[in-house]
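RECORD TYPE: inverse folding
INPUT: structure tokens
STRUCTURE:
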């Protein structure tokens, strides 16, 4: 007779690890490659002892999420995407080929993510996506437009609720940025804003089919701007 193991509740150290790791992934309160609050301040904000924070940060350092430097402090380290970008450059040295394969991957993945995001879009999520869209509308520089465009697509992946898909897009951020820079140089200035607005409307009114169509149309236009024939 098999007896199921009794689940042990997470310890304080594990809870702090989970909270810090989640904040690092969200980048909402722990900036990448910048020094974090002191051990004392982290302990006070979380309502735990400094020894708990010390043990939790050591574990996260072992996982590659934090860097602890004696006399300087602790900082979040965004290493998740770097190995993949390096591998892609070795695997596909030609940037044009990398961009072509990236747009093909996005065409396979992102229309489904848009549909998932639309299926269960909450009022709070609708507000979040609308605010992200406003970043693109109000962007005044080329760099700001590229950043806002990337942020819009990452937000849709997050709202879709698939963490693996979100990680894949984040891992391809450098290649995605290169594609967006080239695409913006060739696209009509108002095209991305109009297409994002169509996507926003479909997702916020919870219309998965319309969201999927809008994303597919948007990515096909992006492929054309990059000089690729949609397949």
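DESIGNED SEQUENCE:
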């Amino acid at each position: 007779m098999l007896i199921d193991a009794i689940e042990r509740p997470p310890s304080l150290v594990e809870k702090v690890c989970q909270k810090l790791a989640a904040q690092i992934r969200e980048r909402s309160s722990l900036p990448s490659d910048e020094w974090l609050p002191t051990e004392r301040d982290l302990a006070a904000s979380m309502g735990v002892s400094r020894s708990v924070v010390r043990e939790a940060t050591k574990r996260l350092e072992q996982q590659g999420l934090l860097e602890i430097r004696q006399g300087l402090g602790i900082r979040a380290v965004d290493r998740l995407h770097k190995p993949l970008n390096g591998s892609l450059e070795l695997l596909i040295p030609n940037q044009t080929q990398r961009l072509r394969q990236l747009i093909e991957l996005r065409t396979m993945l992102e229309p489904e993510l848009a549909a998932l995001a639309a299926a269960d879009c909450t009022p709070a999520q609708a507000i979040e996506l609308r605010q992200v869209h406003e970043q693109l509308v109000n962007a005044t520089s080329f760099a700001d437009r590229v950043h806002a465009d990337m942020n819009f697509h990452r937000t849709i992946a997050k709202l879709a609720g698939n963490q693996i898909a979100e990680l894949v897009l984040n891992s391809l951020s450098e290649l995605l940025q290169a594609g967006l820079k080239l695409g913006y140089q060739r696209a009509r200035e108002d095209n991305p804003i109009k297409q994002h607005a169509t996507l926003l409307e479909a997702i916020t009114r919870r219309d998965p089919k319309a969201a999927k169509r809008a994303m597919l149309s948007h990515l096909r236009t992006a492929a054309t701007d990059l000089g690729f024939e949609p397949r």
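NOTES: Residues 95-119 form the longest helix (25 residues).
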